[in-house]
Amino acid sequence: DRIAAELQDAFLAAERDFDTHLHTPEDAVRRAMANTRPGPVVLADVQDNPGAGATADTTGLLSALVAMGADDALLGVLADAMTAAQAVAAGIGAEIDAELGGRHGLSDQPPFAGRFLVEAIGPGRCAFTGAVYRGSTAELGATAVLRVLDTPGRIRVVVASRRSQCLDRALFTHVGLDPAAARIVAVKSTLHYRADFDPIAAETLPVAAPGCFPCRLDSVPYRRLSVAIRRGPQSAID
Length: 238
Fold this sequence. Notes:
Blueprint lengths: L1 H12 L11 H9 L7 E5 L14 H8 L5 E7 L1 H10 L4 E6 L11 E10 L3 E3 L9 E3 L3 E6 L6 E6 L9 H4 L10 E4 L6 H4 L5 E5 L31
Parallel strand pairs: 1-9, 1-10, 2-8, 2-9
Antiparallel strand pairs: 3-4, 4-7, 5-6, 7-8
């Protein structure tokens, strides 16, 4: 009993260390644009992580990048088989009108409609190089890099036919993009991305853009949760 009590006290004392603040998309993009340190600011679209069962096709963070006038930004991997196939059929250098994403996610998250330049076409698979999945291969299907033309800033999206958690820089580099040289890198991942992206990041910001994987547990409408379990920080340590 004494050891159990000591462990409980240690967990409660360290709770503040594990409390991850989630930024709004607008605040995260604004902070990233203001960065003056070397390296990109990594924005983690934590609630649209396909590794946690999300759809990888919500467009809240992309819309914020465009609306805020971000420049030199990469986003990946957005799963949209229809648009990926359209881009591959059009070919490198083509300009296409498309409705990107928003096909399988939340009802209030529509596709991002716009005009795009097809900058690159991927081989459909790539070898992971980061610590998490090194030695494995990502099967992406039809893949393309689309540059958003409805904004003066350079915003490029890696679009693939199949969902793949963006936890490895290879998902960008295999289509000719260098995340280390970008100003902003947006990844659809909750945690595993840190192994490969934190080493190049000037700052890492978890973002609460809409998605099917809820990361704010105090907002989940639990119906059978034990009264002994807290959903938010303990008031005594705030």
